[in-house]
Design brief:
Helices cover 29% and strands 26% of the residues. It has 371 residues and is of the alpha/beta class. The chain folds into 2 domains: 211 residues, TIM Barrel, CATH 3.20.20; 99 residues, Lyase, Ornithine Decarboxylase, Chain A, domain 1 (Beta Barrel). The protein has an 8-stranded parallel beta sheet. The chain has a 6-stranded mixed beta sheet with strand order 19-18-10-1-20-21. α1 crosses α3 and α4 runs parallel beside α5. It binds pyridoxal-5'-phosphate. This is Alanine racemase.
Length: 371
């Protein structure tokens, strides 16, 4: 162990997860979503792994994210920038030859005025964020893009608000609105790539797949439904690993950490592990997480500080200074999922990996082999 805490990212797992999701949406192209630095896994590595797993499109949210991928040598695949862009950001996105999402006439005009580009028209079928709510206006935008010689109409899209809430009716309502709009476009002979599905929708309903699926969370082996990725055939691609930097006896009545939130009830041992909220291991995990050492589960105890956490090793311990400590990952039949940590914090798995800060180096490997 050469660094205090590291995120080990298995790019081969990302490739396999893309293949798994693609197999669930046969006949649709796979667009790998690598926004927010690939959900914390590393955007460039995630994009490369996704392409080798069969993705043919990449999606990000910001113009800079598109620029970064192009600069890293991803010159070929179409890159869709899904976010709202200021005029300055639009310039950056177009310079990166990215596809732009539009939902007003002014946005089409702005792309046109900059010499043109590839556009996707977004219908807001109920997410209530970006896109026009009006299918008539959306069709008008499609027509306007088609008629403009410097614009290339590429896509017609929407985004689901509740795809991950199995059994809710709103998903069907959104899907119905989008299906009707796409049906009208097709009937009018418009040639466009229709896309709507995120990872949850891919697994939930084939009727949502259309021509292309935008898969994010699932390609990282995080469960779109927040429960267990293995149930979907998905493999977590990221492990968070640190080490026992100090192993010390603790007497009954002695404490560890700020505020004395852990006081030993019996004589025993405590390990100090150099990872904390300054690495993205959130303070809300105070007395609220477990770790794996030597394939055994131990409670993390006491306050999570900026740079360290403490682990209760119990009365008799085989743990030594230098031993590996796994905060996210599987060892010896035990596993700690991002979903488990998310549940403890009252959040979602997305936020656990996205929340790992730059102080944690991302170490890439392919099933253990260096890349
Ligand atoms: C993030 C995002 C996705 C991917 O969603 P996942 O739930 O991570 O699969 C798809 N489409 C849009 C518009 C997004 O912002």
């Amino acid at each position: 162990m050469t660094v205090r805490a590291q995120a080990r990212v298995n790019v081969a797992a990302i490739s396999r997860n893309v293949a798994t999701l693609s197999a669930a949406a046969p006949g649709s192209a796979a667009c790998a979503v690598v926004k927010a630095d690939g959900y914390g896994h590393g955007a460039v590595a995630a994009a490369r792994a996704a392409l080798s797993g069969g993705a043919t499109w990449i999606a990000v949210v910001t113009a800079r994210e598109a620029e970064q991928l192009r600069a890293a040598g991803l010159t070929e695949p179409p890159i869709l920038v899904m976010g709202a862009l200021s005029t300055e950001e639009l310039d950056i996105a177009l310079a990166a030859r990215a596809d732009i999402v539009v939902w007003t006439e002014g946005m089409l005009d702005a792309v046109s005025a900059r010499g043109g580009g590839r556009v996707h028209v977004k219908l807001d079928t109920g997410m209530g964020r970006l896109g026009t709510r009006d299918p008539v206006r959306a069709t008008g935008l499609v027509r306007r893009a088609e008629a403009d010689p410097v614009l290339e109409l590429v896509g017609a899209m929407t985004h689901f608000a509740t795809a991950d809430e199995r059994g809710d009716a709103f998903f069907g309502e959104q899907l119905g609105r989008f299906t009707a709009w796409v049906g009208e476009l097709r009937a009018a002979g418009v040639n466009v790539i229709a896309h709507a599905a995120n990872s949850a929708a891919v697994l939930r309903d084939p009727a949502s797949h259309f021509d292309l699926v935008r898969v994010g969370v699932g390609i990282y082996g995080l469960d779109p439904f927040g429960v267990d990725p293995a149930a979907q055939g998905l493999e977590p691609a990221l492990e968070l690993v640190s080490w026992a930097a100090a192993v010390k006896p603790i007497a009954a009545g002695e404490s560890a950490g700020y505020g004395r939130r852990f006081v030993a009830s019996t004589d025993g041992w405590v390990a100090t592990v150099p990872v904390g909220y300054g690495d993205g291991w959130r303070r809300g995990l105070t007395n609220n997480a477990q770790v794996l050492i030597g394939g055994r589960r131990f409670p993390q105890v006491g306050t999570v500080s900026m740079d360290n956490v403490t682990v209760d090793l119990g009365p008799g311990t085989g743990v030594s200074t230098g031993d590996e400590v796994v905060l996210l990952g599987a060892r010896g039949g035990e596993r700690i999922l991002a979903e488990d940590v998310a549940r403890a914090l009252g959040t979602i798995n997305y936020e656990i990996t996205c929340g790992l800060l730059p102080r944690v180096p991302r170490i890439l490997h392919a099933d253990g082999a260096p890349v």
